[in-house]
Amino acid sequence: MLLKEIKDIYHLELDPLFPKEEVDSFFYMVIEHYLGLERFILALEPNLVVSKEKESDLFYALSQLKLQRPIQYILGHAHFCELSLQVDENVLIPRPETEELVFWILELVQQRNSKQTSKEHSLRILDIGTGSGCIAIALAKNIPHAKVFAMDVSEKALKVAKRNALANNVEVHFIEADILKVHDHKDKYDIVVSNPPYVRELEKQEMKKNVLEHEPDMALFVPNEDPLLFYNSIVQFSIDHLSPGGMLFFEINQYLGTETKLLLGKENFSEIELRKDMFGNHRMLKGVLRP
User: Fold this and answer.
1) Which of the following CATH numbers is that of domain 90-289: 3.40.430.10, 3.40.50.150, 1.10.10.60, 3.40.50.80?
2) Going by C-beta distance under 8 Å and a sequence separation of 6 or more, which residues neighbour residue 93?
3) What is the CB neighbour count within 10 angstroms for residue 75?
4) Backbone angles phi, psi at 139, to 5 degrees
5) Full-prediction pTM beyond 0.85?
6) Which residues contact 208 (CB under 8 A, 6 or more apart)?
7) Are 210 and 252 in contact (CB under 8 A)?
8) Percent of the chain with pLDDT over 90
9) Would you say 285 and 265 are in contact if contact means Cβ atoms under 8 Å apart?
10) How does pLDDT run across 194-236, given as a tens digit for each residue?
């Protein structure tokens, strides 16, 4: 079958479900993954023929997309901070907003290093609720002398994260633990960062089917009556385990920016900053533990 005919079938089947531009993006991602072809191939070879074997891969991906399974799970990988990460239904798909959080951390680390005589190797960083490992691995990749730790309650998620650390040639120390039940942790850190569950059950109606039916609930949702459950625990943990002057970073629910900021304000944190993401939503929060 001609590749351009397969593209037409993608649009015929998927245009009722997704914007046309998104269907184009799906198609180009699929042919790059399964055929190793660039998106401009049809302009160069409009009559390119796909073998029967390769056709089956493209139509399998199409069948999964019709079920609104995320393209990243179909292909088994996602891009984050110029890294390629394995993903499956045991971990959240990394988002661009989380990249912004990483860039903010890197910016402040660079500023601190320019003002201090101590070297990057002294930094100890903990990522709580690491999932795919995206935050921890990106920080380890970009702050090579830091010692990076990553915590998650899910054994299956940690297996994915460990594979990603190995594939991206970084050392991350993984901890299987529930932040809501950690009582005997002894280590101290210079930076604690977390993108914890923060979507209230009442917000499910705003979410797309591909997220609701495929991404892990335990990494997404919190009770309506206690939406800051994880933030409270992480703040208390950070008070005990951040070094004086250490920084705490959160990705947050855009609707609860003020409430989340107040958590830090009520405790021993200064230089508290609520920051918007590229879409203009309050999505990131930072505080510094007072000496």
Assistant:
1) 3.40.50.150
2) 70, 72, 73, 78, 87, 132, 215
3) 17
4) -70, -40
5) yes
6) 68
7) no
8) 84
9) no
10) 999 998 888 887 878 788 788 888 888 988 999 999 999 999 9
